[in-house]
Amino acid sequence: MAKPSIDELIADLMRRNDSVVPPPDSTQYQKQHDKGKLHARERLELLLDPGSFFEIDRFVEHRCTNFDMPKTRAPGEGVVCGGGTIEGRPVFVYSQDFGVLGGSLGEAHAAKITKVMDLALKAGAPLIGINDSGGARIQEGVDSLHGYGSIFVRNVRSSGVIPQLSLILGPCAGGAVYSPALTDFVFMVQGVSHMFITGPQVIKAVSGEVVSEEELGGAATHARLSGVCQLAFPDEKSCLAGVRTLLSYLPQNNLEDPPARECGDPLDRRDPELRSLVPVDGRQSYDVREVIRRVLDQDSFFEIHAEFAPNLVIGYARLAGLPVGVVANQPAYLAGSLDINASDKASRFVRTCDAFNVPLVTFVDTPGYLPGKNQEFGGIIRHGAKLLYAYSEATVPKLTVTLRKAYGGAYIAMCNRDLGADFQIAWPQAEIAVMGAAGAANIIHRKEIEAAADKEQKRREKIEEYERLFSNPYEAAKHGMVDAVVEPEETRPALARALLSLRGKRESLPGRKHGNIPL
Fold first, then answer.
1. Is 174 a catalytic site residue?
2. Taking residues 255-263, what's their average pLDDT?
3. Residues 394, 420 contacting (CB under 8 angstroms)
């Protein structure tokens, strides 16, 4: 029998390609669009630089012989895998195809994903997973569970080595949720993303509770309440654009520095409005995000976890064109106090920045840890210790600015000198002390105040005395705990000089298998 000609072989290749990639007007595409969703391949077209995507394992098929699976075709095994570039930098991706067996994960489906995960780790390039799946392929039984396990272990091996981003652009339930939970960032879309361990029907059967998918595991729930989602968007296009933005602040891997950009914002820019932006009276609130935007490079602040634990603000920005991670108390919520959720939020972010060589800038204005029975019963001691651990462990350049209040243990937790701040400055109105002047005066001078003829007058005198002697930045500066007391408008120039001088910082921790962070 004669071998086929090259034209016949190419015709066969095109036929096979067409059987895997549905035409743009196919029913498969239309069903996704009717739900307000994009198709697996459309998502990759928007995410990656035009024309940069290369696909691997296009013709992989399942080998399941159970039930009616031998008769069932699953083009591409329900997941599109490969690589491409974002702003010219290599990334590896997989995108589950809900139009093929509901994007369910079987042995071959998982093998495609683990192959691209291995390639990302070998190449030292970010991994982006687009999740849109009905879950484990029941027909394949334990093989599908084996598939999830093989993905999880690779998530862990890659943790802190390459950036891992998970996009939830459809259902993600049961064991499938743990791969995104193991990655660095979870993105969700309102009205499209649903993520939970057990769905509404199971919950109703077990506990009698009635809850919708959106309420149980939608983007708003995970962005505001659970903290599982770092970034939520109104639609898929803005979500995919958000991924591109986030990656612009991160290096390719843990051995590289984050990408610098040309800075069009003068390093010596001074903003006199900072003086009036932060009230001297510690009882008055303000939005710390405005301070961040005015001090760091213009239009560079990209907030993360905005709706979860809003008493603390985190995000990425640039200073002198260099990416930095920002951690700041937010006086507009709970007076900027630290609680369980804020501690978890900040410690996770600090460790992510440290893993990928992103310097940290911390803005401090906190009265302390949030008091209350719920906080104590919920383990504020354990959760608060995470932040102490994260900052102490971090070896990247650490810059700290005390804007106003810095009391007690929270002063230490917000990266003071003892936790390794390389450069620490304070504004003239900063209050650095064990506690507020009023509380301290009432404790130290209680008997004297009680014995006074005019108790209120004596109390005011002792409060003023405490403020003069202790509750100011100069006392801390005397002991070398503050490097400089600067006018608010001098903050940007001071931080820029410090960051540029610390750019080559190298610090090693004692050799060990790993630390034991209080989880």
1. yes
2. 96
3. yes
